[in-house]
Amino acid sequence: MIKIGIITASDRASAGIYEDISGKAIIAALDEYLVTPYEAVYRVLPDDQSTLEATMRELATMKCALIVTTGGTGPAPRDVTPEATEKVCQKMLPGFGELMRQVSLQYVPTAILSRQTAGICDQSLIINLPGKPKSIRECLDAVFPAVPYCIDLIGGPYLECNEANMKAFRPKS
Amino acid sequence: MIKIGIITASDRASAGIYEDISGKAIIAALDEYLVTPYEAVYRVLPDDQSTLEATMRELATMKCALIVTTGGTGPAPRDVTPEATEKVCQKMLPGFGELMRQVSLQYVPTAILSRQTAGICDQSLIINLPGKPKSIRECLDAVFPAVPYCIDLIGGPYLECNEANMKAFRPKS
Amino acid sequence: MIKIGIITASDRASAGIYEDISGKAIIAALDEYLVTPYEAVYRVLPDDQSTLEATMRELATMKCALIVTTGGTGPAPRDVTPEATEKVCQKMLPGFGELMRQVSLQYVPTAILSRQTAGICDQSLIINLPGKPKSIRECLDAVFPAVPYCIDLIGGPYLECNEANMKAFRPKS
Fold first, then answer.
1. Around A52, how many Cα atoms within 13 Å sit in the side-chain half-sphere?
2. How many C-beta atoms lie closer than 10 Å to residue A32's C-beta?
3. What ipTM score was computed for the predicted complex, to two decimals?
4. Any A CB within 8 A of B93 CB
């Protein structure tokens, strides 16, 4: 069974001050996109860099093909998700952050404040998403067409999408 | 009184070979954008990385909410403003550079040569602008809508804009 | 005589498993763009980071004004061209990668997987291009208008383009 990690970085959600709707929005999106069955490995964590790094590494060791984070991408001192991502990844993929910011810019000029990025940790693709459920979906819709092929390239499992909801692209070579 | 730093990086302007019109163009733009009164802390410096770093740190220590630089963002050996910025910042904000290059690309194909970036140094937002007054205004117009909210997020003072000249955006949360 | 380096990074092409058509596509594009005569310094190498770095440094020492690479920019473990480029360069030029990904995104959503970048190594401008001949041309067409001026700024030779095929831009200053 394919595993996908979902990490919510939020001091307040992890303390139980409010419910994590962001992580659940990611799972809902993945359920729509994918026909391949998968197991969601879901964690809600405080905005603590070493905790985030340890969890990303743990999920990579568990062979999660994809690890999607939400939250902690802004300029505030407690926002450290991109730092944690960069620390655990062997390769960074700047095109993900560029495209997600460009898409979000169509809705809000503060999209440039998001430092979200993506990278490869062992055989896992890690993608940072913003914290707000609406922005999560806009960003994930924009980058997901490239996700299955990226996972192919790093030696991960073959993900198949529900064509009606998400058109994955794999170049003929 | 809110403080805003303006740093002109230019060997020739700092040597008095010509007048710094770039720094003055930034102050003119800020005067149009802001209704909140502010004190401009204005410096004209040579393109020397350690001088630029020391001045950025000094202005951050003086609690400048915003530090705007002009010049030194190109590929030439003496262009070191982005290096200095990266050195003093705890967090980089790649979305600023991406958007500014995209805007400048509408005017000149050489916009891709600009390495301008932005980041957070303590409680100051530092933004690099290009050296030419015309490009300064294009770039600042593009990113400034996100500036007041960014300063909110890093614990700085509340900046208010003159809506007729600059529409700052603060998401309702 | 002006020198331009062309480096193909490909395990299979360097092993003679197939012919390198990518490097040849770059030379064909340069022949169309440039009226200034140049000598092509052409190398086909395996996807090995230290070999790529050594060759980039060698070509910079030979005073190649421009070094164009093809291949090795994806997320796979053997893709290390951007890492080698970053290692040998004193300055990175993120605008090149941003623009090339944006252009490629008009054709394929997997363009965000390319980590291609550009930078300055001594007096050489290094530009990474993707591996596929079709994408090579799209990317090179997009960034080349800024190349001659960039080479001016780093103290390299004056490149002149055939206006019918490539409009180089040099700002009046």
1. 31
2. 14
3. 0.96
4. yes
Asked if B119 reaches chain C (Cβ–Cβ under 8 Å), the answer is no
Tokens of B14: 């700092």
List the alpha helices (DSSP H) in chain A.
11-14, 21-33, 49-61, 81-88, 94-105, 133-143, 147-153
Cβ neighbors of A108 (< 8 A, separation 6 or more) are B169, B171
**Which of C125, C145, C153 is nearest residue B109 as measured by Cβ atoms?**
C145
User: Which residues neighbour C119 within 8 Å (Cβ) at sequence distance 6 or greater?
Assistant: C85, C86, C88, C89, C90, C91, C92, C93, C125, C126
Would you list the domain boundaries of chain A? 2-153
For residue C59, what are the contacts with CB-CB under 8 A and spacing of at least 6? C3, C5, C7, C41, C43, C67, C124
Angle between helices C94-105 and C133-143 (to 10 degrees): 130
Chain A residues within 8 A of C104 when measuring between CB atoms = none
First to last CA, chain B: 27
Residue C11, CA atoms < 13 Å, CB-side half-sphere: 9
Encoded tokens for C131: 């591996």
User: Least CB-CB distance to B150: which of A83, A94, A113?
Assistant: A113
- Both tokens of B81, joined, read 């403003």
Most C-contacting residue of A33, A91, A152 (CB-CB within 10 A), to test interface: A91
Q: What is the bridge-based pairing of β-strands A64-70 and A124-129?
A: parallel
Domain formed by A2-153, architecture: 3-Layer(aba) Sandwich (3.40)
Buried b (16+ CB within 10 A) or exposed e, A143-155: bbbbbbbbbbbbe
Across the interface, which of A94, A149, A170 has its CB nearest the CB of C115? A94
Q: What is the pLDDT of residues B3-13, one digit of tens each?
A: 999 999 999 99
Q: Which two tokens stand for residue C74?
A: 């994806």
Give chain B positions within 8 Å (CB) of A83.
91
Query: How would you label A90-116 residue by residue, b for 16+ Cβ within 10 Å and e otherwise?
Result: ebbbbbbbbbbbbbbbeebbbbbbbbb
pLDDT digits (tens), chain A, 173 positions: 999 999 999 999 999 999 999 999 999 999 999 999 999 999 999 999 999 999 999 999 999 999 999 999 999 999 999 999 999 999 999 999 999 999 999 999 999 999 999 999 999 999 999 999 989 999 999 999 999 999 999 999 999 999 999 999 999 86
Structure tokens at B164: 């007729």
The answer, as to whether pTM is greater than 0.90, is yes
